[in-house]
Amino acid sequence: MVGPSFLSAAFSRISLVAPCINSTRGITLYSNPLLFKTTAYLNAEPLKKKKRIDPQILKQREERKKRRLEKQIRRLEKNARQFKPIDELEVPLKLIDERELRTRNLSPISPEEEERRALLFKAWARYKREQRLEEIQMIDRVIFCQQKAMDELRKESEDLYQKAIQLDTELIPFEATGPMRTPPIKAYEGPDGEYIDVSKKW
Amino acid sequence: MAKNFSTTSKVTNEKWDLVGALVVERRPVIIKELTEIEKTFTDLLQQIEFEKSLKSDHEGDIDNIDLDGVNQQTAQDFKDMCKEELAKFNLAPRITESDKKNDLKSLDRCLDSHLLLLVEHKLGGTYNWIVPQSLHQEGEGLHETALRALEENCGGDLKVKLLGRVPWGFYKYKYPRDLREKGPVGAKVFFFKANYLSGQVKLAPKINKDFKWLESSKIFDVKPDAYSDSVSQFLLSCRR
């Protein structure tokens, strides 16, 4: 007779003796104790009967819904026409009121001064024109110089030329910080300050 | 039609060495001093601006600053305080120590102009002031040659930003006659341009004797003239 020990050796995961339950069924496939189990869920249940609603009420409900939507649309349309005010573009009322008080009482400009100013404006225009011309010539010169270098390179080696005209992705996006008005102060620590955000919320 | 598409290089029996050179520029830190006309015109514009303006709160006796009623402070007091604070603040000088000592190795010099890196490099038997250059090696682009030239001559500590892979300028010179018969006739130098970012020059010995950061306007002191001319061609200032 083959004893239970043999069976348990053959099917190690099958427990022959359920620990808490004294049952005539000797074999179960679960290793943990067999306890109460609730049904997991119902897969189906009988359909509910549809409620009949009075068509009058239905109509009323729909009406109410419509009215609410219309109201919302009206409110949106009303607000859409109002823009955020731009403070900088509006002259403060205080300034308009105090205009008289705030105007400067300066003596009128003498004709000589006016003449000097007119001449200075003309001289400035000439100066800027010259500067601009020089700039254009400089750019032309640099481009011409580069073109010449490229031509020479192509004469020497087509391969190197092709390598040179490849896109240099390291340059994009290009960033440069311009010259400042004053040189940086070495080992300068900026004073601490409070950051107050005064921008309005709309 | 076929003519338009022909791109093959012209075959010559002369052989030239290809050389990549890197012009490292330190961009100006501060703006230039205003010229005479710029100064007078700025003053005029400010005067006109003043004439057109209305009085502000701090001017005249329109409004006194009243902070919580405790700290009663007049506009004049406030103005004096600001002036005092400004007077206490020391701006860094435009003319630095290195300017006074004329230390050509320092980068803290001539803050308002471009500085170019030059090395006294051994070419053939003699030393010449040139920008770092190196012979082209098989397989690398010319811009890589130029970057390598900088590293070989001035050490790896120097960080620069290469401005494009396209050469900016060109210069060629011939070797001495006895050399010419053996191999290449001369060298074709292709200049690349880079902006200085950080780091210090650590000059490689043997091939280099010295280095300096030269203002770009003084590039014409570099001999031969043809060389400094070709370099200046793609700089902002050029020989008039």
TrEMBL record, chain A:
Where is this protein found?
Mitochondrion
Q: Which GO terms describe its cellular component?
A: mitochondrial large ribosomal subunit
Keyword terms = Mitochondrion, Ribonucleoprotein, Ribosomal protein, Transit peptide
Q: Which Pfam families match?
A: MRP-L28
User: Which superkingdom?
Assistant: Eukaryota
Whether Plastid counts among this entry's keywords is no
Similarity remark:
Belongs to the mitochondrion-specific ribosomal protein mL40 family.
Instruction: Give the protein's recorded name.
Output: Large ribosomal subunit protein mL40
Q: Name its species.
A: Ladona fulva (Scarce chaser dragonfly)
Automatic annotation (TrEMBL), chain B:
User: Does the keyword Ribosomal protein belong to this entry?
Assistant: yes
* Signal peptide positions on this chain: none
Q: Name one GO cellular component term.
A: mitochondrial inner membrane
- Transmembrane domains' residue ranges: none
InterPro entries (UniProt xref): NUDIX_hydrolase-like_dom_sf (IPR015797), Ribosomal_mL46 (IPR040008), Ribosomal_mL46_N (IPR021757), Ribosomal_mL46_NUDIX (IPR033650)
According to the UniProt entry, its GO molecular function terms are: structural constituent of ribosome
Keywords recorded for this protein, A-Z = Mitochondrion, Ribonucleoprotein, Ribosomal protein, Transit peptide
SUPFAM superfamilies recorded for this chain? Nudix
Which residues, by range, are in coiled-coil regions?
Answer: none
- Primary residence: mitochondrion
The identity of this protein, by name, is Large ribosomal subunit protein mL46
